[in-house]
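Notes, Module 5: Reading structure tokens.

Key idea: the token line is not a picture. It is a compressed description, and you learn to read it the same way you learned to read a sequence, by spotting repeated patterns. We will look at two proteins. The first is printed below with its tokens.
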Amino acid sequence: MTYVLHNRLGSGGFAIEAVLELAEIPYRLELIESAPGSHLPDGAAAMNPWRQIPVLECPDGAVVTETAAILFYLAEKHGSLREGPNLYVEDSAAFYRWAVFLSVNVYEGFLRMVYPERYLGAGSADVSALRKAASARIGDAFKLIEDLLSETQFICGDRMSPVDIYCAMLFSWHRKRDEFPRCIALTERVARHPLVAPVWRKNFDHWLDREWADG
């Protein structure tokens, strides 16, 4: 049995799919018919009671959820995520730090913007304020990444790691990008990688405001 990745096009499982491609790990993609930003169908609870994707079914029968956790699990199991030929983790502390940082401060911020009723309750009058605050917090997080990239080409060192894939995906979702030229450059480097570009186009060209994989 190979890995089975459950995702829907345009959602966070892109990062896992791209990493599996770069690490040359066999997997099968099971797509859920659901548009980005909509609620997952009821059947998703059978895979993950929290009704979120991605979900990774492992060859040994384990089921892993949460993007950062899946990245950590794959890096532990497969040296090709840590030491090439396409992905490198030069600084393990940075790998763990920034993957969790992106999950908690950026990914969660987007969830607040897209699904405000989860945090406020249906019919709340505070939706606009929540979305504005979440967008500002996401911007603050990318400012930290932008400053970090003034010292290095990639987040965890001089070569691309799984965290760069994760960050590029999230940054491409952000609408206020002009003040982050280094994050733009990182996203372009990731999206245009020969192994990533086909996965990127399949997931994002139909709904993002920019076709990042094409120069």
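Here is the second protein, with the sequence above and the tokens below, as before.
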Amino acid sequence: MPNVAVFFGGSSCEAEISVITGMYAVNLLRGTRYHVLPVYLPPEGGMVYGTWRKVSEFAGRAAGIPVTLRCGALVREGRRRRFPVDVALNCCHGGMGEDGTLAALLAWNGIPSASPGVAGSAVAMDKWLTKLAARGLGLPVAPAVCIAERAFCADPEGACAQAAELGFPVVIKPARLGSSIGLTVVREAEGLRDALALAFTLDTRAVAERYFPEKRDVNCAACRLKGEIALSPCEEAFSGGELLSYEEKYERGSGRALPAQLPEGVAEEIGGMTRALYEALGLRGVVRADFLVVGARAYFNELNAVPGSLAGYLFDDTLTGIRAFFLDLLDEALREKPPAKQIIRTGILSQDIFSGAKGCKRRGNFV
């Protein structure tokens, strides 16, 4: 029976939501053809392995066994006990779990992952980089600018003027956060400084973007199964306010429509944009693309490399079906494990030309 390590937690603002997603996946995968290894990433760092079954067990300090990743296995610290890992599933939202850091650690240890890789995760985590990628693909994106914290500190008025050039209203948000944390809709110039200051308490870069009061929040998920990209139906998430809030996402939702009732051709356009991003960024696993629909026009907004609940509900509305979907993702990761490529060794380290004082000078003159 292959072992799947499910990673969740972390130190980001979304770590608590990550615990919910992680335990959701852990409990669905228990008792299947995979043996589950739950791995929690505490806010203070490190990794802990445990046999948790309830989210409430993480309300305080979660008890578990400290482990590290080494040569394709979880290794218990101070002992020789190893838990081999055949495949990994990333349930970390935000921070150094969703941004490619965990993906890099898994790749370094030779562990196949059923979640996006390093480059795709890094681009998806940064809202500004994702918009640049979408623009490069010719996809419609709302007018936006990126403002660095150092530029704001050096010239607050200039930074605010840069955002104001988009026209009001604008939405200000941290560049590398999700779950609607730190977002502010600004309707006049006087509110820009406070909105940017709020964003910079959470990130070193902020995105200012044209806000559409009549917009609809629509998303579409994509994954690769049996070598082919599969798309979910479009979903519309309803909001009772200007923005889809954290509370509406996780505590008291205002409802949703699946499939979304969209103007003719818009659902197909959104699906095409989602597919284009998935292919161009070389993604794997399941991702969710978020769009703003204004009238009959759709604008790409964000890309989630680790979507809430791993977007399983967008592909099936039963727990049995979602479990089967997660198993398919794991099977795909094992089946599509990247082949080993040739590594060229030149033997340059064995040459005497880099020894001694003259060699020291030569070492500093690489072309």
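Summary for the second protein:
- The chain has three domains: 3-115, 143-210, 214-305.
- The mean pLDDT is 90.
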